[in-house]
Amino acid sequence: MNRLQKLTALDTRFFYWCNDLHRDLGLAPVSRFVSRLGDGVLYLLVGLGFALWEREQGVIFLQVGLMAFALELPLYLILKNTIRRDRPCDRLSGFRAVIKPSDKFSFPSGHAAAAFLFATIMSAFYPPLAPFVFILAGLIGLSRVLLGVHYPSDIAAGALLGVCSAVVALHLWELI
């Protein structure tokens, strides 16, 4: 077994472990709620809220966030449609997801990318909120695994994509 096969096997085992625990604890309603927090509406509302609340820093926060999402979204779509990794609910026999995924492919997780992008931008502008937003980002990513629509490595890749997009946007903003 080569390294990629070993990583895939580990990823699949962790996926099953998370889902067994999820089912045993009856966390589907909580996971659905947490996952919906990462659908995108919350990020826009928070951005607009800060822009209205803090005219100077809040407006910059919103602009940098929009720039970061403008960088992340095309990269996410290119990766997802190039790699074309089947979702666990489509690949693993006898497994059913708790929710119906919005598209066919799983790698990287768009929810994780957006959540970690938002957490990175938020922590750069409002450092006291960093622990809260990063915990929330982690929970959003975990909820996607628990709902059966992503492998753990999808979440890790999405988190990396989101953080990198946010860091690039923050550096680009400094150059403007």
TrEMBL record:
Keywords: Cell membrane, Hydrolase, Membrane, Transmembrane, Transmembrane helix. One of its GO terms (cellular component) is plasma membrane. Its main location: membrane. It catalyses: di-trans,octa-cis-undecaprenyl diphosphate + H2O = di-trans,octa-cis-undecaprenyl phosphate + phosphate + H(+). Residues 64-170 form the Phosphatidic acid phosphatase type 2/haloperoxidase domain. It is found in: Cell membrane. It is a multi-pass membrane protein. One of its GO terms (molecular function) is undecaprenyl-diphosphatase activity. InterPro entries: PAP2/HPO (IPR000326), PAP2/HPO_sf (IPR036938). Its EC number is 3.6.1.27. It comes from Marinobacterium lutimaris. This is undecaprenyl-diphosphate phosphatase. Pfam families: PAP2. The chain crosses the membrane at residues 33-53, 59-79, 105-126, 156-173.
